[in-house]
Design goal:
Structural class: alpha/beta
Number of strands: 9
Distance between the termini: 59 Å
Oligomer: single chain
Largest sheet: 7 strands, mixed
Helix content: 25-40%
Number of helices: 12
Shape: elongated
Radius of gyration: 21 Å
Length: 282
């Protein structure tokens, strides 16, 4: 079955009475070159397990099954389960799990399906839930070797931007704390059915064995970053003061102690400077 052929896809979905859901951000890949490339660049091989999120009709799943030892794909939409049974049910190294990735016990899932295997994540993520899924995976501290995902281009730019650069945001700092991100390749909006209004990018996050900075209080550290970027048009001291309820003078004094101007903005702060500022304010 050619899952990149629009006519084939429409017939498949019609057989199962499936209609696209805008609320679930469903856009199925129809560009035949994208999924093989994603699978190859995910880092998976015959000794590797792959956790896929949101398989849709199984286009990426099929390609992952060709390179990985085992693929567990998590689909939240029950309407797609019979579709997936038809498209990937015959693949002996694929297991479809019905559930919400943000609610599943991932530690239990990895222990059940990937005992003694290195695990990577590979997924075409819905735009509306990209950040929550990425942060849930990173914060889980589970032994994922890498996370390869397709996301909206704007999100890719923000996620991969180095802290301290103009394009950076709170997600940039958080991602760089846990992993080394890189943009792999662009994907045009015409690669999907239905076509979204934006282009996409495939990115890969290679997880750090240990964070690149030594943070005493992680909860406070991420609260500080979130507050700093909470009001991007204001200075970091104003944003942090408002977000954390700390007197502005206290934040300004902490910045001064680090040799930083009180007018500095959040996007100008590096991960190391956020770490030092966090220590100053503890």
């Amino acid at each position: 079955m050619n899952l990149s052929n629009i006519s084939t896809i429409r017939q498949l979905l019609s057989r199962h009475g499936f209609q696209f859901s805008k609320s679930l951000g469903q856009n199925f890949l129809i560009n035949p070159s994208v999924c093989p490339r994603m699978a190859q660049q995910s880092g998976a091989d015959a000794s590797t397990g792959v956790l896929e999120i949101g398989p849709g009709i199984g286009v990426l799943t099929t390609e992952l099954a060709k390179v990985a030892g085992k693929v567990v794909t998590v689909e939240v939409d029950a309407r797609l389960l019979p579709v997936l049974e038809e498209t990937v049910g015959h693949l002996s190294n694929v297991q479809v799990v019905h559930g919400d990735i943000l609610k599943l016990d991932l530690s239990k899932l990895l222990g059940q399906y990937f005992p003694d295997m290195d695990v990577v994540v590979c997924a075409n993520l819905p735009y509306y839930i990209t950040s929550p899924i990425l942060m849930a995976l990173l914060e889980s501290r589970l032994p994922f070797r890498s996370i390869t995902v397709m996301v909206q281009k704007e999100a890719a730019d923000r996620i991969c931007a180095a802290p301290g650069t103009r394009a950076s945001g709170a997600i940039s700092a958080a991602v760089h704390y846990y992993a080394a991100p890189q943009v792999l390749f662009p994907v045009s909006r015409g690669s999907f059915l239905p076509a979204p209004n934006v282009d996409s990018c495939v990115i890969r996050l290679d997880l750090h064995p240990t964070p690149p900075v030594n943070v005493t209080n992680e909860r406070r550290f991420f609260a500080l970053i979130k507050a700093a970027f909470g009001q991007r048009r204001k200075t970091a001291s104003n944003s942090i003061s408002a977000g954390l309820g700390i007197p502005k003078s206290t934040v300004s004094d902490a910045l001064k102690a680090l040799g930083l101007p009180p007018s500095i903005r959040a996007e100008q702060l590096t991960l190391e400077q956020f770490t030092a500022l966090n220590e100053q304010l503890l």
